[in-house]
Amino acid sequence: MLETPSTPLPKTAPEGMVLIPQGEFEFSVEGVEVAGGNETGVDVQYPWEDSPRRYHDHVLSIRPFYMDRFPVTNEQFKQFLKATQYHPSDDHNFLRDWHNGDYPAGWGQKPVTWVSLEDARMYAHWAGKRLPHEWEWQYAAQGRDRRLYPWGNQWDASAVPIPDKGSTLRGPDEVTAHPRGASPFGVMDMVANVWQWTDEFEDATATASRWVYD
Hints:
Layout: E1 17-20, E2 23-30, E3 55-62, E4 65-68, H1 74-84, H2 117-126, H3 134-142, E5 195-202, E6 207-213
Antiparallel strand pairs: 1-4, 2-3, 5-6
C-alpha cells in the first residue's frame, strides 16, 4: 500500500464535514483477483500484514477524523479547476460527461465522475484534505455495529438511486437525493450512486487502486 500523508486534525468541524469518532472496528474485506486461489502473495497487503493475501480481517483502533458529508460535486470540482487550472497528464476520458469545460445543465449537485485517482488526489490536496483509507471509509459507512448497509441491516430501496437496467446510463443522482441512506455518523450517499477512490497498492510489475462503492 502506498503511503498517504496525514493532514492536521481541525479543532472544529470544517464546513461540509462530519466527525467520525474514535473507535474499535473489525475491518473485513475480500480481494478481487481473478486467479491464484487463496495462495500467499495473491491480492494486496495491508500495513499490519506480512504478505499479500485475498482475505483480510483485522480489528483496528480508528483514530477520529473528519469526512465530507457528501461526495464531491461537479460544482465543487469546477471551482477546483478554475482556481488551479488543473489538467491531468493523461486526459483520456477525463470528465467525459462535461462539454466545453462545463458540466451538463442541472448537474451541479451531482457527484463528479470520470476522474482518475490522480485527479481525486489533486482535488483533495487543493482542498487541504486527503482521500480516506479503505478501512476509514468502511467504518464511516458501517459504524461500530458493522451493519450491512449504512442505514441498517434491511434493504431500503428508497435510500438509493433507482437502478439503471438499460444500455444508456442516465448519470448519478444528486448527492442530497437520498437522506434515508445516511450512515450512523451522518455520511451520505455511500451506496449505489458512484464509485469512490481510496487506497492504492503497487508491486514490482504493476500498480493497482482499490475502490469502494459509494
